[in-house]
């Protein structure tokens, strides 16, 4: 079975490909995304064998996505523009499909991809978990890579989320729930509706206040998160 994903900023284009994938027995669709940044996160998390990837998207191009995620997966580009064909094949795309995509042409591209994957020619997938997150900053279109071990704490601030790392504060347009869903649960813990912290940075808990390593700020503990935090602290102590 070949595990695949679809990334395209047009829902109608995704619907066409979802229908096509459903007709091919050896394809398993594991995720779709209309947002390129969400797509990057899904690729890093699920490590699909094959991605059907649009090139011309608002926030970033499919080629930009491929540069970020590397060669851990095979890509079939799906686009309405022919201008990027040479660039696509420079990045070892399996195929380049022009919209509107006819099913026979789609099938041919999938057969080519399956041949490469099944023959073992696809790059070996790295099984080491990611130790970073890419976030979109308040500067339109700019992505910043933040290593998990650099994060002191994460704070929700009205329309922004702030990553505090040393003396630096990085603002991103995502909300705190989006960030929480993308972070590994074994490293980070939500302690308040406005705060996420790396568990290893917690120095002490007193009167519903967290003290963090190398920070003067005191982080509050929300009532709905307290039981989970105490339970996790107890489990850590018993190990």
TrEMBL record:
Domain (Response regulatory): give its ranges. 3-114
Q: Which domain of life is it from?
A: Bacteria
Q: Where is the HTH LytTR-type domain?
A: 140-206
Keyword line: DNA-binding, Phosphoprotein
**InterPro entries, per the entry:** CheY-like_superfamily, LytR-like, LytTR_DNA-bd_dom, Sig_transdc_resp-reg_receiver
Which residues get modified to 4-aspartylphosphate?
A: 54
Please list the GO terms describing molecular function: DNA binding
**Which SUPFAM superfamilies does the UniProt record give?**
CheY-like (SSF52172)
Residues of the signal peptide: none
Name used for this protein in its record: LytTR family DNA-binding domain-containing protein
Q: Which organism is it from?
A: Flavihumibacter fluminis
């Amino acid at each position: 079975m070949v595990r695949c994903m679809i990334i395209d900023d047009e829902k109608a284009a995704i619907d066409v490909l979802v229908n096509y994938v459903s007709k091919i027995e050896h394809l398993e669709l594991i995720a779709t995304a209309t947002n390129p940044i969400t797509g990057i996160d899904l690729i890093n998390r699920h490590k699909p064998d094959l991605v059907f990837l649009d090139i011309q998207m608002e926030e970033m191009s499919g080629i930009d996505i491929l540069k970020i995620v590397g060669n851990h997966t095979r890509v079939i580009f799906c686009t309405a523009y022919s201008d990027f064909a040479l660039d696509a094949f420079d990045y070892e795309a399996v195929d380049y499909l022009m919209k509107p995509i006819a099913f026979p042409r789609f099938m041919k591209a999938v057969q080519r991809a399956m041949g490469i994957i099944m023959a073992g020619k696809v790059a070996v997938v790295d099984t080491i978990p990611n130790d970073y997150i890419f976030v979109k900053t308040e500067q339109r279109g700019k992505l910043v890579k933040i290593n998990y071990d650099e994060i002191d704490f994460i704070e929700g601030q009205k329309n922004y989320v702030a990553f505090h790392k040393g003396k630096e504060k990085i603002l991103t347009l995502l909300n705190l729930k989006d960030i929480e869903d993308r972070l590994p649960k074994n490293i980070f813990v939500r302690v308040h509706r406005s705060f996420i912290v790396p568990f290893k940075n917690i120095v002490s808990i007193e009167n519903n206040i967290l003290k963090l390593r190398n920070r003067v700020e005191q982080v509050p503990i929300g009532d709905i998160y307290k039981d989970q935090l105490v339970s996790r602290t107890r489990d850590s102590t018993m190990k």
